C-alpha cells in the first residue's frame, strides 16, 4: 500500500524553495508514495514543471484588482476564510487520509499543516531560512505552539538549525538537517546554452530577488570602487523585485550604466554563472543559498558575505572567499584579490569540485526517504 503524502506550499514562484520542491518531486519514488501538492496561492511560473505523478490542487486564485481597496478585501477574505472555515478547506483540498503531511515553507503552509484535522498523520515542517533574523521575536513566539505540533522539523543547513534552536530551545529532538539537493548534471547541461551577450571584461555575476536583504547595492558600490582603482570589471545582475528602481538609480548615481547590466529574471541563469569569472552573493542572511551551491557545482570562484548559509557551504574560505556582512571595503578588496590573483582563482575553481558532492540528489533523497519511511 502506497503512503499518502500531502505537501503544502505558498506558491510555485521563482524562489529557491520552490525550485528545490520541484526537484524533490521529480525524484520521489511513486511506487511507494502517492503525492498531493496543495498550493495556497495560485501564483508563479513553475506549475508546468510539477511532476505528472503529483495530484496538484490550488486553494486561492491569483486575482489582482486595479483597486487597492478591492485587493485589500480579497486578502482579508483569504485570511478570514482560512481562519474560520479551515475545517471545510482542509477536508475539500487536503483530504483526511494522508499518512504524512509536509509544510514545505515557513509561514502559512506551516500554520496550515499544524491545524490538520488528521491527528494520525506524521507532520514535517521545512525551514529554509534563519528565523532569528528573518522574523521578529514576537512572530517567533507566536509560532512556538505551531512548531510544537510537528513530529520533525527539517532545516536546510546547520546554521539554520542553530538559529531555529535559538528560537525554540526545547525542540532539539525534533530538528534535523537535510541539505537542498542540486540536479548537478542538469545544471551543467543547461549552463552550456549559448548566451546572446558577450562578456568582454572580467565579469562578476550575481543572481537573486531584488530585495533589500540581498544587498545588491553593496555589489554596485564595490564595483565602482574597483573601477576607481583601475581594476577592469563588469557586473551582471539577474533577478526581479521591489528594489529594481532603487538599484537603477544607484547605478546612475555611481555612473556605471555601461558596466552594470540588470538582465531581469532568467529561467536559465546557469550560462551567465558559467561564463562569468566570479559569482557573488551579498545577502545579509541566507538559510541555505541554493544559488551558491549551484555555482559550486559549476566550478566557479565565489565571493560571499558571511550570511549563515554561505559560511557553511564555503567553510571559512576553504571553498570561496567570505567577507563581513554589509562591509563595502572588504567586498571590494576580496573581489580585487580574486580578479588579480590567477593562483587564487585556480585554487577555488579546483576546491569546489570536491564540495559539490554533498549536494548530490541520490544522497539527499536517501535522507528524505529515510525521514518519510520511519515512524
Walk me through what this model shows.
The protein has 375 residues and is an alpha/beta fold. The chain is 43% helix and 18% strand. The strands form two sheets. A seven-stranded parallel sheet has the order 3-2-1-4-5-6-7, with helices on one face. A six-stranded parallel sheet has the order 10-9-8-11-12-13, with helices on both faces. Helix 14 (309-314) links the parallel strand 12 and strand 13. It is globular. The mean pLDDT is 92.
**Using only CA atoms, what is the Rg?**
22 Å
Please state the structural category.
alpha/beta
Main sheet makeup:
7 strands, parallel
Average per-residue pLDDT, rounded, comes to: 92
- How large is the share of residues in beta strands? 15-25%
- What is the CA-CA span between the terminal residues? 16 Å
State the strand order across the main sheet: 3-2-1-4-5-6-7
Sequence stretches where pLDDT stays below 50 over 5 or more residues? none
DSSP helix fraction: 40-55%
**Total beta-strand segments:** 13
Count of helix runs: 17
Overall outline: globular
Order of helices and strands: EHEEHHEHEHHHEHEHEHEHEHEHEHEHHH
Write a brief caption for the model:
This protein has 375 residues and is an alpha/beta fold. The chain has helices at 16-27, 68-84, 86-94, 108-114, 131-134, 137-142, 144-147, 158-167, 184-190, 216-228, 244-254, 270-275, 290-297, 309-314, 328-340, 342-355, 361-373, and strands at 3-9, 33-41, 55-60, 100-103, 122-127, 152-155, 175-177, 203-207, 234-238, 260-264, 278-281, 301-305, 321-323. The chain contains 17 helices and 13 strands.
